[in-house]
TrEMBL record:
This is WWE domain-containing protein. GO terms for cellular component: COPII-coated ER to Golgi transport vesicle. It comes from Cyprinus carpio. PANTHER family: PA-PL1 PHOSPHOLIPASE FAMILY, SEC23-INTERACTING PROTEIN. InterPro entries: PA-PLA1 (IPR058055), WWE_dom (IPR004170), WWE_SEC23-DDH2 (IPR057825). Pfam families: WWE, WWE_3. Residues 1-84 form the WWE domain. GO terms for molecular function: phospholipase activity.
């Protein structure tokens, strides 16, 4: 039996997060699995109208999918940013992972797919934002 020379590419399954101010820091928190699945299903349904709303947190919050905003239903609260997340980084002073923007994550996923399907690793990926990332193998990336 001949071993595979290449890895099989499988796209990352996204999870949805929202940003919330905790004390003086902005913290990204995951939606529940059920809410994330519901957001992903609505996202994949192809509905692009601005008025598409998904109820989350037991109906206490609405997510305006087009605007990527989460708003409280029953009380006054500033809307918070929502992201469909696939790639994360950890800053020097951060104890939590922070999701990359959706646009940047798409670029990373395309580069990851290229590396997996061609089996070419250890390339330095330099992005216009100044970010440099090295994908060492299918399991390890360095920021």
């Amino acid at each position: 039996m001949v071993p595979y020379a290449y890895n099989v590419y499988e796209p990352v399954q996204p999870h949805w997060f929202y940003c919330k101010q905790v004390e003086s820091k902005m913290v990204w928190l995951p939606f529940s699995v059920l809410d994330s699945i519901r957001l992903e299903e609505t996202f994949n349904s192809g509905k692009t109208e601005r008025n598409v709303i998904v109820c989350t947190d037991g109906g206490r919050y609405d997510v305006q999918l087009y605007d990527r905003a989460r708003t409280a239903v029953y009380w006054e609260e500033e809307p918070t940013e929502v992201r469909r997340c696939t790639w994360f980084y950890k800053g020097d002073a951060d104890s939590r992972f922070i999701p990359y923007s959706e646009d940047f994550s798409e670029k990373l996923e395309a580069e990851y797919k290229k590396a997996v399907t061609t089996n070419q690793w250890h390339r330095r990926l330099e992005f216009p934002s100044g970010e440099t990332i090295v994908m060492h193998n299918p399991k390890v990336q360095h920021y």
